[in-house]
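Title: Comparing notes on inverse folding

I've been comparing how different people in this forum approach sequence design from structure. To keep things fair, I'm posting one structure and asking everyone to reply with a full sequence. Here's the target:
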């Protein structure tokens, strides 16, 4: 038996093919190491070969003719490795360091083994490539009517037992560098056979891959976005180191497109052959076959991750409406379904949308007074999102394409800002996946701020105030403190209390449980004479005309309007109390509460109409220190005069504010006379002083409070006893309950 015959016989059934592919993708060098590999394709390779060989003797007579037909099919599982080669394209000089060999990327196929004859379990580490089972082994007549030996074989087998790789090399071409892609296979050098590692992830792989990666990362490769594959060749190795090409896929555009979006399937015909002509041996090999590739992409999900502590985040505006306040970043990534840590082969473009964003005026309920309308309170700003393309209104943005992850930075432009964030990953195959919120696959819109009870108010604030469990609506207004006044509530809704107010002391959110009173006190009369006693027990907030609508016109319904920036969750206009120093007043009164009536002119004394919604109708409280001063001129002792002035100033301011908040005189509804208004609980500021008190200022007692329910007051009275004699005693009465008349809420 001569050498060549041996060789040929041995080779024939060992036909292995490969199929491979390569595609370069957008990954940063850091992520290359982590995410380079995925199951992506399933392939089926079928081959039908006809081999005719003739052996000659020294006189060139045929001594043996042999025809072998075989068919072969193998299921392939293919992986695609993504790397970046752009640097070379952008800067071809760097190619010098990377010859075709060092630039080799290796991609392997593996398979599922089936069919008889594919005896892969037997044997040892010896190379056992595909074995076809013999279907027939007969002698037949050939076209010359001579007997020839015909063998037919078929089978399916494993590429694990072959040496499979793919070379991508960069070569100079027309107009620059082009990539040459060559698939190569051979059995002779296959170095790996391990039954327990059925895929191609083998030692040599790892080594080659590692080397490739290290080399490329060393040069800081930048990801490419496009690599033309211009040729895919299948090599057949007749013996180690000796190769012949026999099949070429020329339609690489189809292959490349498929590798970019491996959905559906593509099919390539394979036709090849070779001939050997030697003195003692002639052979002719014809191969036909096909390679079918099917996409095997895993389903993808997108997940958004709010920052740590997001549940405690509350919006904070900047001082101006159009400059960003506080903010936070939401990350998003795509991952293989149910495997949050597994990066998919797909890439995506991310679309960010804010939905139902609030558009309240200004930055809080009362500032700035002429707040813009129609401007969104939560925005994606261009400045904070340089990676994104942001819409003009800041309500949507888009990332670049071909990403695995992205993120968006949101800013608040209002203390009550709210909205929902929706993120859609548009995959490279066109599929749109809406991101779920990490930890809850059911939720696909992130409520901003965290708001489980859906009232547009941050849960964090409700928890801080101890009302989260109550699930109040945004329009709720039932402030219960202080109790025992005319009604609960202060006219500011839950949302308004949360959204907060600008005051002279700075911005603050107010309490939903305590009634608030806003005060315009330019002369600090309230601060000096009322606040130390605070007899109505309200939460006091000082503001100025930059923190409310203030025209000074009594009948202008916008005058003293505090919640002037509140649009959506608003009950009614609420008003500030305005206390002003006055030099002189008609009739020599020390203080006045002036209210608007529906029919009369200004300054009508009609106490029993103006008190229904006192803050709405009482537009000014005038206090005249000079009038009080003048009334005390008769007091010689300067200390007594000063003490009396202080007492009368305080009781006057408190008395008039009492009116301003709805308290009537102690007249029991009777016509007010000098006599009728001096009755009642002695130290209630609403009680007028008696002539005796004016005559003896040293006896004047502080009147710095409002009388309350259940209190009694007494006055001397006389009656006849049973003998007809006059008897003096103290008659006891219920108080006028001034405190119970207090009301700070205005209705629509
Ligand atoms: Zn009065
Ligand atoms: Zn009273």
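Reply #1:
Here's my take.
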């Amino acid at each position: 038996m001569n050498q060549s015959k041996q060789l040929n016989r041995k080779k024939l059934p060992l036909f292995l093919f490969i199929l491979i592919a390569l595609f370069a993708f957008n990954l940063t060098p850091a992520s290359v190491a982590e995410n380079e590999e995925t199951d992506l394709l399933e392939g089926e390779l079928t081959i039908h070969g006809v081999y005719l060989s003739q052996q000659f003797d020294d006189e060139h007579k045929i001594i043996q003719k042999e025809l072998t037909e075989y068919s072969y099919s193998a299921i392939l599982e293919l992986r695609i490795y993504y790397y970046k080669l752009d640097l070379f394209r952008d800067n071809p000089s760097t190619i010098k360091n990377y010859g075709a060999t060092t630039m080799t990327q290796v991609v392997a196929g593996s398979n599922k083994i089936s069919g008889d004859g594919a005896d892969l379990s037997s044997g040892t580490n010896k190379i056992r490539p595909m074995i076809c089972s013999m279907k027939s082994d007969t002698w037949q007549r050939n076209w010359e009517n001579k007997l020839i030996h015909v063998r037919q074989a078929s089978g399916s087998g494993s590429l694990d037992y072959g040496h499979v790789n793919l070379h991508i090399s960069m070569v100079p071409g027309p107009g620059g560098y082009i990539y040459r892609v060559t698939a190569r296979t051979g059995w002779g050098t296959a170095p790996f056979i391990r039954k327990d590692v059925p895929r191609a992830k083998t030692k040599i792989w790892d080594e080659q891959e590692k080397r490739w990666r290290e080399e490329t990362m060393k040069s800081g490769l930048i990801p490419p976005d496009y690599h033309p594959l211009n040729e895919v060749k299948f090599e057949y190795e007749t013996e180690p180191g000796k190769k012949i090409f026999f099949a070429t896929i020329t339609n690489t555009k189809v292959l490349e497109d498929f590798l970019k979006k491996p959905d559906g399937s593509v099919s390539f015909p394979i036709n090849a052959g070779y001939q050997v002509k030697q003195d003692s041996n002639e052979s002719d090999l014809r191969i036909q076959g096909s390679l079918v590739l099917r996409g095997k992409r895993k389903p993808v999900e997108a997940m958004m991750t709010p920052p740590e502590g997001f549940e405690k985040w509350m919006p904070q505006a900047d001082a101006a409406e159009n400059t960003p306040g506080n903010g936070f970043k939401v990350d998003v990534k795509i991952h293989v379904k149910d495997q949050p840590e597994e990066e998919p082969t797909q890439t995506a473009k991310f679309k960010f949308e804010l939905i139902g964003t609030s558009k309240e005026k200004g930055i809080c309920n009362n500032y700035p007074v002429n707040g813009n309308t129609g401007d969104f309170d939560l925005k994606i700003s261009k400045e904070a999102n340089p990676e994104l393309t942001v819409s003009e209104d800041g309500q949507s943005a888009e990332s670049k394409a071909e990403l695995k992850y992205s993120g968006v930075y949101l800013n608040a432009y209002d203390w009550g800002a709210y909205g929902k964030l929706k993120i859609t990953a548009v995959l490279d195959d066109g599929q749109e996946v809406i991101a779920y919120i990490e930890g809850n696959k059911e939720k696909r819109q992130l409520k901003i701020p965290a708001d489980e009870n859906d009232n547009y108010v941050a849960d964090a604030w409700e928890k801080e105030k101890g009302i989260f469990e109550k699930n109040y609506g945004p329009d709720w207004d039932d402030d219960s403190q202080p109790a025992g006044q005319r009604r609960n509530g202060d006219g500011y809704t839950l949302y308004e209390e949360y959204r907060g107010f600008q005051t002279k002391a700075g911005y603050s959110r107010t309490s939903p449980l305590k009634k608030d009173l806003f005060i315009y006190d330019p002369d600090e009369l309230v601060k000096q004479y009322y606040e130390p006693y605070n007899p109505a027990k309200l939460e006091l907030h000082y503001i100025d005309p930059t923190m409310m609508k203030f025209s000074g016109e009594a009948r202008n319904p916008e005058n003293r309007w505090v919640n002037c920036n509140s649009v959506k969750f608003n009950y009614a206009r609420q008003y500030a109390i305005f206390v002003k120093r006055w030099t002189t007043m008609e009739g020599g009164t020390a203080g006045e509460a002036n209210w608007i009536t529906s029919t009369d002119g200004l300054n009508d004394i009609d106490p029993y109409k103006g008190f229904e919604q006192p803050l709405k109708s009482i537009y000014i409280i005038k206090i005249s220190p000079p009038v009080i001063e003048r009334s005390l001129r008769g007091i010689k002792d300067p200390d007594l005069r000063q003490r009396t002035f202080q007492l009368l100033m305080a009781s006057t301011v408190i008395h008039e504010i009492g009116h301003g908040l709805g308290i009537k005189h102690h007249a029991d509804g009777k016509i007010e006379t000098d006599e009728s208004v001096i009755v009642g609980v002695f130290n209630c500021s609403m009680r007028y002083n008696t002539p005796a008190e004016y005559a003896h200022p040293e006896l004047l007692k502080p009147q710095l409070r409002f009388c309350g329910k259940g209190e009694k007051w007494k006055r001397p009275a006389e009656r006849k006893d049973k003998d007809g004699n006059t008897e003096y005693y103290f008659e006891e009465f219920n108080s006028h309950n001034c405190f119970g008349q207090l009301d700070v809420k205005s209705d629509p």
